What we know:
Layout: H1 14-33, H2 45-62, H3 68-85, H4 91-97, H5 100-106, H6 113-134
Amino acid sequence: MNRLTRTAASGRMRVWYVLAVIGTIALGLASRHFRGVLPEMLGKYPGDALWALMVFFGWGAVFTRASTARIALLTLGVCGAIEILKLYQAPWIVGIRHTTLGHLVFGQVFSWENFIAYAVGTAVGIVLEMLVWRS
């Protein structure tokens, strides 16, 4: 069984994944607030990648015994669904998107490039899990 399809023998440690969610949120907010620190060519995509990584850690906290592959697929599914949802422009959801929390969770403008950022964030989650299991 390879690292992507197995879980840790006793499952993920939920507390570490919750802490990782909190830390990733902090990094994501910082990536948007301190844009000048990152290369300008990256634009807003580090925040999008970190958002996907936060979703990865969130699913890891919920499904402590699921395989890394399953967590990655859930992450990409949620990120993709929310990106597609941006195409829906009903007044009620646009109103939600104009709140701070709504903007952070649902975003505002659909972008195909976000799918790449989500894949990068998910890949970082996979690599981090593989590194933890290796040690």
